[in-house]
Amino acid sequence: MKPPGLIALLLILAFFAACGAGNDSNNSDSAPSSTGSISLSGNSGSFDIPGGVSSVTLYANGEMNADNLTISVMDGPDDSGYVGTYRVAVDGPYGLAVARTIPDADYTPVTEGRWRYKINCFGCLVPEIKAFWKSGEGVNMKLNVILVSQSDITSADDPNLQETLGRFKSIFASNGINISEITYKWIESDDTVITSTDTNGNFQPDGMDRLFSGNKGNSDFVQLFFVQSAGPGGTLGIAGGIPGPPVAGTAHSGVIAATFGGLSTLSSHDKNLLGETIAHEIGHYLGLYHTSESNGLRFDPVSDTGECRKSNPIPASCPDGANLMFFAAGGPSIPQTTLSPGQRFVLRHAHLVR
User: Fold this and answer.
1) Which InterPro entries does this chain map to (predicted)?
2) pLDDT tens-digit profile of 28-39?
């Protein structure tokens, strides 16, 4: 999501230094869903999914030598091709590490039996491929907050930090997802200023690659990085994938959110907007697409979201303008906090929602 103004500074060589940690917990009474995984070998093959499974996630990590890594085939036992089956086509997963979760909409059930897959990597052998599965619908999500060179935030209970995160948590709670635990970590890095430089061609700034791959955190948590700038044009946030990898430490494992010089400098409105952006980008990371794209021709795969068939519209003119996953920020007059039942279905089946 992009607000007006603010151009990013140039990126310098990255370095990391851990400075502290903390923890908040807010456990739900709901029993966690059960999960499983299997390691796969070869860029194509098959894997067996047991009965009672509600979601399947295929994950491939080509590390830093992958050239435009993509998941080109993910077929269920009934030969239903899940990759690319949308109302209107949206981009598939791509980058140095990729993932695809089924269901990715409210009409794609998981079928027991043998599934086929194919990973395209243009001549390279993908060193890590896994299939993850989950039974039941999740309601709890864990969050690891990494503050990157944020000198004005010195503790987890900082009121500006908690106001921003509180907005995010309230949006997810209103849509049925409880943030059950939050951990905090402080690091120093020149990559707190993200530029548009993408030397390895993975459709993501190099600074994000370094921040995400350098973070070997708990893979049961979504990784959220607060940076000073998220890129040119005043970008508020970026997700590492749709969905992102269900493991930490890859070049696409995380979400960034920009503080534009520090959370303490932001107005209450701007902190609310940043909280909405965090919810939006984590929505991407868990598998939600924009309900409509700016050209008015591309839409998400969920059946019950609105479609705005206009070019470069303002949110107020669109049936999905107040949806959390609309492509552009709504501003103070249009809070974007709602999700459709179909979108909530996708979130509950995301691998990191337990």
Assistant:
1) MetalloPept_cat_dom_sf
2) 545 557 899 999
